[in-house]
Every structure is written in structure tokens, then in C-alpha cells.
What we know:
CATH class of the largest domain: Alpha Beta
Helix content: 25-40%
Largest sheet: 10 strands, mixed
Distance between the termini: 38 Å
Structural class: alpha/beta
Amino acid sequence: MRRAELLKELEVEAVWDMIIIGGGATGLGTAVEAASRGYRTLLLEQSDFAKGTSSRSTKLIHGGVRYLQQGNLSLVLEALRERGLLIRNAPHLVHNLSFVVPLYDWWEGPFYGVGLKLYDLLAGKLGIGPSRLLSREETLRHIPTVEQSGLRGGVMYHDGQFDDARLAISLALTLADLGGVALNYLPVSGIIQSNGLVTGVEARDAESGREYRIQGRVVVNAAGPFIDGVRRMVDPEARGLITPSQGVHLVLDGSFLPGDSAIMVPHTDDGRVLFAVPWHGRTIVGTTDTQVPTATLEPLPLPEEIDFLLTHASRYLTRHPSASDVLSVFAGIRPLVRSEGSGDTASLSRDHTLLVDSSGLVTIAGGKWTTYRKMGEDTVTAAAQVAGLAERPSVTGSLHLHGWQEGVAASNPWQVYGSDASALERLVAEKPDWREPLHPVFPYCRGEVVWSVRHEWARTVEDVLARRTRALLLDARSSMAAAPAVADLMAGELGKDQAWQDAQVAGYCRLARGYLLE
Length: 518
């Protein structure tokens, strides 16, 4: 994926059908939707794909048991349908995971049992497994490290699990397969208008500094937590649409949850659900819901959020984790749509909102990873009307994403590459040392760094360690030790010197220290 060739596309194409701002789940999903309908599509991302919220999720593709509790059946129905479609369209990245709700009071079995049967019913033909009550012994077999004192049994249900950043890369590759163009590190600096209508964007290449004026029949604002900033490029007085909410997760060693299932705690002190989820050989515990004043690309967890997660994890796990057990901590900003009268962000809807300004700027806000495809479908339908493009039906409900491959074991470290794994195998065979591990604690080899530069838009050490691989989240300290090797391999591919390598390693280590609990 040669950046210079992609940049030339900006000069060749006089007017794009759709220009999409934002390379997270929503922007990528919208771009794939547009390109799959035959519209000439350009996506621009200010940093790296999924740099923000979209790489910092709980790693679940789910209907939302909490939304069922809130009575938001329409959102649950939509999300369960999208969950079923995504498992079909990206089986190399999304798989069935069983969840157990541990029961400690007599009333919990009937209460949660009935609720989860409704969850099954809403999923219909796209269901991925029936819920059922578990005895105490069965519960311990599935989650052997759950707190046993007072345990009566459990309720098991099923949802989807995925690798969020890898799904984002798969969407970018799908966009390229469909003839669209995606560019990271090309932030939009302004909106072009003519007679009060949006006609394109101004963008600046973060690497070269070169500026571009790019014409488009319609511009879609899918910038996640930063959509209000884009809207104010058109109207400086635009009222804020987003209430940013921070969610934090802790990553622990896999021994904290050694069974084959995740734990779902349906009611914590702040009314949220809490998950302990096995993922890539680790245990993820999350999440929090804390309103923050502004959105940033690298949000930092608050001490009270860390305490909340450690306290609740200790209530439900026989091994009580402490700060010294945390391998990595990551925070993301949810772009929740503002609602008058809502007292806290936990109560704000996760539905998406579509807005068309008088200027013709199309903004898509809210939502969640699970419903990214439906958000893209709704957005492109509206944007095509704004642009006066030929009406074409959506095909993404049955569109296999790049790398589609069935039957790959979830334990296979190259599962996330899907059908690209054979090409990756040929690449690592080119040089003996490319099979060598990046670091003893990670399942990644040196050749994967080369692959990510050549085929997956990786431009920085952070791109590789945070999102092409997930080393930063799996063990932040060990990822810092791997950074020099990554910089050396990337320099060989990108034609960079030692000074570039040194700056990359230093910058990455500064960032990674924010994922450690000192």
C-alpha cells in the first residue's frame, strides 16, 4: 500500500463522489458502503486508522444486554442483527464467545434467565447460541476463578468477540478492494464552500506538509469525538452535538480468567455492566463511563477509574488484582450524542444520529462498533441524496470483508489476517530472521512489521505496536522493549535513517508509559 501512489489519486480525481472525514469504525464503514455502491470514494484520517475510540473498545460485537435493561429494544434488535451479519461477513475477525453471569442471590436466576431468553428471541435466525441456566459446578467449570463464596450458579449467554483495530484495517483494505482510496495522516484543515454549500475539503499531509484542495459532491463528517470541530469549520457558531464519555479498561494476565468464557456483571456501583473477557491470551476488565470536558487522541485514565475497576474485579475474582498486576491500561472516548436533561453519560443513548446541515455537510454521530455497517448504510443513502447521485441499493449486508475465511481457529496467531495469511507466510519465508519473534511475550514475528508497512498503511512504530499488532495493549512495558526492532525493520522499508528510528522509539516509549500504572 504505497502512500505516494495513493496521494497521486488526489491529483488525478477532479471531483470525488464522496469525501469522508474520519478513519474510525464509522468513517471506514461509511466509505466501504459508498464504494460498494459504486460511488468514487475518498476517506481522510488525521492520524492512523482506528487511532482513537475504535481501537479502545471492550472487544465485543454485541446486542447490548444493558440496553435491554434500559428498554431500548430497537437498538438491541438492530445490534443483534448487525452482530449476526458481521460474524458471517468477517469470520476471521469475529467469533462466538460465551458469557456467564454469576448468581449470588435467589432471585437472580429467574430474573436474568428470562431477560437473556428475550435476548435470544430478539436475535431470531441470526442468533449464535441459546442462553441457559448453569449449576454451581457448571459455572465453576466455565469460569474457575470466579468468587465462590455465596455462588449459587450462573446464566450463560452468547455474544461476539473481535479485534477492533484489525477489523478497522480489514475495512480499509475492503475499501481499497472496491476501488476507494483511504489515506491516514492527512488531516482535514478546512471545508471548501461555494455559495453557502460545501464543495470539498482542504487537507494537509502530516508527513510532507503539502496542502491539497479536494473537490467532492458531498462531504461526510464521521470524525467521532471530533465531529463538532469539523462542523465548526463550516459554522463557527454550531451548537455542540457530542458529550464525550471516557471508558477505561485494564489488561491482566490470562491466568486471572483461565476458563473458556467471559464474566458479565450486570450491575455495578454506578449502574453499568462490567466485563472480564479473555482476549489474545490476556484478561480485559472494563469499562467505566466518565464524562470528560474535551476529547483527545490519547486520553488518560483517572485514578478513580482504576480504583473502580480493581475494586469490582476483586469482588468477582478469587485472585484480587492490584495495580502491579496490570499489564496495560487503555482509555477511549465515546462520542455520545448530547441529550437535554440527562444526568450522566451512562444514561445517554448509543443510537446513532444523522444530521444534514443547511450547507449540505452530512454528519454521522453516536453509535457503536457493532452497528457501524448500518450507520454507514444510513449515511450513504442520505449523502447520495444530498449529492444528487444515482440511487443504488446497499449490498454490505452480505459483503465479505477483506480476508474473509472460515474455519480458522481463534488460537491461531495469524487468524486476524484471514486469507492473507498465505501471502504473509510467503513474505516471512523471504528472510530467515523475519520468522523471529518481536519479543518473547508476544505471538508476533518480525515479518509482520514488514507486512504492515507494505500492505496495511503502517507509518510509525506506534501504528505497528498499537494497532497492526496489539502489543501495546497486551503488555505495554514489553512493547517498549520491542520498539527498536520495529523501528529498524520499518526504516528498511520506508528508507528512513537512524535519526528517524531514534525519534520513533523515543516517541513511542513516551506514549506507552501512559498505558502503565506506575
